[in-house]
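Dear colleague,

Following up on Tuesday's group meeting, I ran the structure prediction for the two-component complex that the binding team flagged. I've pasted the input sequences exactly as they went in, so you can double-check that nothing got truncated or mislabelled along the way. The structure tokens for the whole assembly follow below. Feel free to forward this to whoever is handling the docking comparison.

Inputs:
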Amino acid sequence: MYLSKITIENFRCFGDGLNRFELTLRRGLTALVGENDAGKSAVIDALRLVLGTTDQEWYRLEDSDFHEGASTKEIRIGCRFAALSPDDKRAFLEYLTYDERNGHEPVLYLNWSATDAGETARGRPYRRVEIHSGKNGDGPSIDPKVRELLRATYLRPLRDAQQALSAGRSSRLSQVLHHTDEIKTSGIGYDRNKFLEVKDLGTLNVLGIGDLADRLLEDQQGVRGTLKRINDHLERLSLQGDIVKGNIKVGGSRASEDIRLRQLLEKLDLAFDGGGQRAGKPGLGTNNLLFMSCELLLLSQENEGNKLLLIEEPEAHLHPQRQLRVMRWLQSQAQEKGIQIIVTTHSPNLASAIELDNIVMIHEGRAFSMAEKETKLDPSDYRFLARFLNVTKANLFFARGVMIVEGDAENILLPTIAKILGRDFTEHGVSIVNVGGVGLRRYARIFLRKNEKEDGYLEIPVACVTDMDVMPDCAPAIIGKMKEDAGWPKKDNKRRWRAKRDIGDESALTTFRREKRAKACGQWVDTFVSDEWTLEYDLALGPKDPNGGFSGGLAEDVFVAACLAEKDDSINAQKTTVGDVQKMAAQEFSALTKETNKAKNGDAKEVLASHVYAKFAKNSGVSKAIAAQYLAEKLLEKHESGKLTSDELRASLPKYLVAAIDFVTGNGEEEVSPCEDAPVNH
Amino acid sequence: MKTLPSITNPSLFELPSVTDKDICWVTSLLGLPSEAFQGEGGSDPRQHVLRSMEPIDIAACPGSGKTTLLVAKLAILARGWRHSTQGICVLSHTNAARHEIETRLGTTNVGRQLLSYPHFIGTIHGFVNEFLALPWLRSLGYPISLIDSQICEIIRWNKLDGKWRYALQNKHVELSNVRIVDACFNLSKKNGPFPFKENTQTYRELQSACQEVAEEGYHCYDDMFIWANDLMDRTPNVIQSIRDRFPLLFIDEAQDNSEDQSATLHRLFTDGDGAVVRQRLGDANQAIYGFVGATEASTERFPNESIKTDLPNSHRFGQDIADLVDPLGLAPYGLKGHGPKQTCSLSSQPKGKHTVFLFHSVDTQKVLDAYADLLLETFSTQELREGVFTAVGQVHKPPDDGGDEHPPRHVGHYWPDYDPELSRSEPKPQTFAQYVSAGLAKLHTTGETYHFVEKVAEGVLRLASMAKGATDRPRGQHNHRNVLRLLGAQPDFQKSYTGLIKHFVEHRDSLTEAAWDNGLETSVHVIANAIAWTSSDDPEVRAFLKWSDERINPVALPAAQKGRDNIYRFSRNGEKVAIRVGSIHSVKGENHTATLVLETFWYDHNLDSLKKWLCGDKKGFNGKQVRISNRLRVHYVAMTRPSHLICLAMKRASFEDEAGNLAHPTSAYVLRCMA
């Protein structure tokens, strides 16, 4: 069986009624991801309360565990277990609920509640804790012996693996060993009355070895000799006819088998054997691995009851490559041994190694499963993301805002621009995901809920930034896509570009832009399409003013950056300097400006911006990424030297970039209006 | 006991085996003589019963120590039990086996284990409820507030419009003879076909009344078998789960199973492949329960001759009583009397002569005195003090219509003060005052206030349940806690409830009608209304709240500190004897020193119609007349109680010839005529 659903009310950050926490789980592995204080640990602690843990540690309810502002001081936690095996069915027979929606297949509900009526007992607050079965908690209360079957194995965050694995009283290692088949069944006991050949020593079981050692100790010459001397003294001291004799025994050797076995196992220490140079005391991380393998070993041997493993932050003390291995291993164990594993993690490393299906984002006290049919991702999206959702992109699971961009240029420029605008991405917890030109909207759909009515929205603003990719009519000639005097080329499959006149008039363009936006838009996800053509072109053109003209924005800066990128190799080889290139570029730009101003029609700015962009667009165009780097440096330098204020930059940026940055940093904290009604320009 | 380790696959159940060592251990645990289960040269069939792990039926004669044997076997099994989710199931009609384990093993480890998960020891009803009916009802969304046929029937009836009730009653359909037969609330009538077709409106009105009542959480006892079978119909896998959970089944008092019960148990445990190991214990000659309105079991009739083990030797009485009783067995198996055992106060020698008291109708009320005189003659002072002396009859209640023809008809004819209500092991109180009274009785016997509080709380809950639309009902346990919980949202009422309880406890010995009328009644009523979220002043409620002083204050009754007890006390010349008077049904399973069986009337005078068997002229019975076989079984039970002395009380006319002369057809009994 596996835990298929959990609901939590009035516990810590989770409220009640509509604000309660509800999560449907799948078999195998589930990873709870999300930023700090989202409620991941509260979910794990709730499970510890209901199920209890195999380490027998007692979770004491604190006053702060009751949700603040709840109308009643009653915590309610519900669990549902599904897919019961025949063994489970017989064990929980009297507690089962026959699920009507599922062919009356039995499921097991646990309803745990703790009520604080303000009473005290012996000076401590008294809270009534009850645990009932039945869908509505109207079934019989769960027998303590049955609760034993339900205990989960729990590994705490930053656990002290070393201590758990060291010899000592009730060490976890001794508990694990105590439960293994091998210890139970291998070897034979030691019989005091039978002579034991030396060659047979190896056939003894653990208890036998202990008993033999006790015997040898008691019979050791020195011990016997000393005993004799003690008794000699005693004899002289005692009265006639009242002989007192001492004897030496190994302490605890008369205790029950169970206790003796435990005491023997507690002598054992799990050390690390790395072969030669690395043998000895293992590091924290390695200990952690050993510890987890012990627990899994124990769990995989369970035949009855709940095979549930809760691990908080399995990444603790592990370097990234090992994290990945651990995660893969846990996933395979979950599958092969039928163990259910719930982990919480802050590690993009782990998150990237877990199948998207198994991830549950916890945000603001609510759970959002990434499983199929829960999101608007389609099956092909899952296949795609399984390949491409890597460590850097997995950041998105931990963000408060996500900016998804097409390529390196945006990836480099946008954080700098945002910083100058006073909307620093780092400060706002915004992750930027660079998709490298493939599958931009697939990432965005991760955040779109399929069952929005029940789930509500995942309230993390997600901005997709993409290009309009429609050039002004003057551009094809400028960037060499066609001869200036030739007629407009036919639209066919060979042509890889399009210009405004291909689309049509303003309203056709509006429709075109709206369609682009609609591919990922809704709930808290929105797509920001460049106002005109591409990032660089739009930066060079600047925002449209109310009269339909353009300011020319950052044309010179972009042009200079492009020139710098062009000469990047020479600069790095110190054949020329940044200053020289800048000087040259400035002259070139002013010449270009003069030339374009002579143009007959009123689109001088567009022509100029097209010329700037031609640097990137021509066949041997410069690297957009390197140019972006130079541009970012330049903007920052200008800002820091006071030559470019936030407002000035804001005014000269294309509108879509400003809107995207504002949106993702929560500068207008509302859900996205439905795409169809939305204004085209942000 | 040795069990092979089954760690690798615990879902495979391995039957344990019982060794000599185990038997030794259990005899000393139970404080029995070491040869208790051995017999001469190990010939006692009890040994075989203890060791057997096969399906067997154990036909145990009265006094054979059947329950002790079962307890011993369970103790052995529990000691070596190594399955954490599989257990032993012990079913019976009463909680006698459970009580026996509680008293004899309660403080031991094995006792505690047996009484808890994963085992089940209890009644068949309890089992069906816990494992099938209640989980299924909950799953279907029917709440379970109260399982009580009487209340459920009343509520069903109240749902019906007057005209439908009238129509039903016209065709002799009463609230108490309607049964639902399936999960769709189709109906049947006890003892006969249902007089309305399914498509008539009357039928449908009653049907939907039954459904509504179930939706409100009220159910009849018999409904539970319907729901259990419905679950088995819809998810047949549950049968396998039951068998997986309980691979070993004991059925005690198997002779008393009704057909409903037998069929359900058969389907659950033994039908088809993969039957569990079932061992039944009982005595077909003592089958006296389960026939009132139910049909005798035809499924897997007990005992199955092919797997039967007889325990014919009784430790209770000697061969003289065995010979007297044996003919009354339906299938006489040659009772052997190995008793009675010498105890500290009673000699092992049977005393006196088994006697028939013959009386004229006018002398009926002298019978008990005559019996008492005989007891004084027969037994020593110490024996009189410590022995158990009883007088019982098959019929102990006057008929509902109060009819008095055919005397002596019932036990009350011998002793007008006899109160049949007190005879039940725990009578169901009819008024709030009786709850208080029952609580006081428990408090006096146990010395624990808890029991008193529980009873008062139960009374409050019962009252609340009478108010229509109430949501929660007494469940037999934790009544006090339930009241507190139900009043959780109304702290003021909670406070006045605790105040009330405090008052009851503090003034428990001075609860008078005056005090009741002077506020107590109102408080109780107000609290009950608060629980029910409604107020009710039905005649039913008013009757429940009526005070009856004589029941409430045991101190006011000089006769007995513990209230009335149906004990007939007799003394002459300083010698005293106390005779417990009751029904035969109420003494089933008991040990007496001497038993007087009283003539009563059920379609005929019972003893009179059994005269041939009493005199040894007839042995056994396999005829068709149900009344005769019933009478035989009931009187077999009565006459196998005593260890020392059997007496009968019969009309003189039974032994008179046509001329009115006393005929002596028997030498087994002494005949004593009442003056």
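The CA atoms of residues 89 and 120 of chain B lie 5 Å apart.

Cheers,
M.
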